[in-house]
């Protein structure tokens, strides 16, 4: 049996989180790396979002990550227009109504939100060419992933999302990986950083063979 392989990438903007598409879009295959056959993305980032994306040949990772008993934390760095006041930070922390499929509203679960300095490891972005325009960087950590949740949260708080980067999933971090960069991670380290403890028994069993329908991406 061929050992499974695990990668993280820093997905650049204007790239779709898949290898095959019927549309004329930039795909993961454009990265300067030869991935093994059967590699697929775990979860997704929308085309405009950047940052940490997991790729693996192990089809059971999606279930282990999203259907476990303990939800996994995902941290995002979000740059929004204008200054964000303390009351808005508190609103985002405690729960804000966002529109979901079907036209109704969903109140987001409490999450971790704080105002941060611009992360020094980030490359410059075209939206940051006007330094005199007021803006705020936020760190938002979620355990749920409604469709485009982060973008909808800041929009409902009356701020335009200028840039969105996934920085980490649990202890699996983007670090200083450059846009388009790829890093392979050893199997035991991969699951330890994701805080998934039952991976050995899950991989050796016939359970969780099918990927679930996950409301991803959150951004």
UniProtKB/TrEMBL annotation:
Q: Is Transcription included in the keywords of this UniProt record?
A: no
InterPro entries named among the record's database cross-references:
PsdUridine_s_RsuA/RluB/E/F_cat (IPR042092), PsdUridine_synth_cat_dom_sf (IPR020103), PsdUridine_synth_RsuA/RluA (IPR006145), PsdUridine_synth_RsuA/RluB_CS (IPR018496), RsuA_PseudoU_synthase (IPR050343), TruA/RsuA/RluB/E/F_N (IPR020094)
Q: Where is the signal peptide?
A: none
Any GO BP annotation: rRNA processing
Q: Which SUPFAM superfamilies match?
A: Pseudouridine synthase
Designated name of the protein? 23S rRNA pseudouridine2457 synthase
**GO molecular function list:** catalytic activity, acting on RNA; pseudouridine synthase activity; RNA binding
What family does this belong to? Belongs to the pseudouridine synthase RsuA family.
Q: Which UniProt keywords apply?
A: Isomerase
Entry keyword annotation includes Isomerase: yes
All copies of the Pseudouridine synthase RsuA/RluA-like domain together span 6-154
What species does this protein belong to?
Dyadobacter jiangsuensis
